[in-house]
Amino acid sequence: MFCPHAGGAASFFAPFTRHFPAGFDLSGVQYPGRQERLDEPLVPTVEGLAEHLVPILRGLATPAVPLVLFGHSMGASVAFEAALRLAAEEPRTPCLVVVSGRAAPSVPRAHRYPETDGEILDDMVKLGGTQAEFARDPELRDLFLPALRNDYGAVARYRPTGEEVLDAPLLCLTGERDPRVSAEAAAAWKNHTSAEFRLESFPGGHFYLADHREAVARAVADWAESPRGGPPSHTGT
C-alpha cells in the first residue's frame, strides 16, 4: 500500500503501478479531505492518519502473504506508525516497510517547518512537489491548500521518541540531493528495525521517485520477492 506525502493523494502513485510485476495487489491510501474524500474532515496528526489506516491493513494482512507498506515523506512516518500499531495487534502478521524521502525518527530536526500559507507553498514548490504555475493558480491553490496546510502541521507536530523499533524488514529509499534528508539521516533508519535493513539511493531531490518510477518499483518488488520477504503481496499506502 502507498502512503502519500504531505498534501498528496493516492493518485500520485498511479503511474508506478504499471512497473510492478504481475501478482502484486497494488493500492493507495486516500487520506480524508482530498479528491473523492474532499468532504471528510482532515486528520491533523500523523498518529491519527496511522490509526485510520490500521483497520484497513488488518483486513488485508494474512499470515501467508506479506503486507508491504510504502510511504513517501510524511507518508513514510504514517506507514511506520501504522506498522508499529499493526505489529502490536498482530505480531505474527508478515509486514515489510518501505520508507522514502524521510529522515529516521531518531534524527533531530535540522529545520523549521513553514507555517504561513505562502511559506508552505514556496516550500512545496522548492521541493518539487508542485509546479510553480499550479501553486499560483488561485482556484487550484484554494482547492489543495487546506490539505497541504493540515499535513504540514501534522508533520511539524509529530514527535516520535526516536526509540521506536519495528520487528519487520525495512527498506529505505532516498534521493541523493534531497535537501531534507541527508545520507546519514536516511541510514539511521537501520536503528528502527530489529530485522533486515537496506538503503538504496537514486539521483534527484526530495521527489526523486517521480523521475525513477520503474527503478523504484523494481527496488520495492525485488525487496518484497526476496527469500526473506516471501511472495509478492499488497503494496502501497
From TrEMBL:
Coiled-coil intervals, chain numbering: none
One family name in Pfam for this protein: Thioesterase
Superkingdom of this protein's organism: Bacteria
InterPro entries: AB_hydrolase_fold (IPR029058), TEII (IPR012223), TesA-like (IPR020802), Thioesterase (IPR001031)
Domain Thioesterase TesA-like: residue ranges: 1-224
The UniProt record lists the keyword Hydrolase: yes
Keyword Cell cycle appears in the UniProt entry: no
Keywords from the UniProt entry: Hydrolase
Family: Belongs to the thioesterase family.
Protein name: Thioesterase II family protein
Native source organism of the sequence: Streptomyces galilaeus
UniProt lineage: Bacteria, Bacillati, Actinomycetota, Actinomycetes, Kitasatosporales
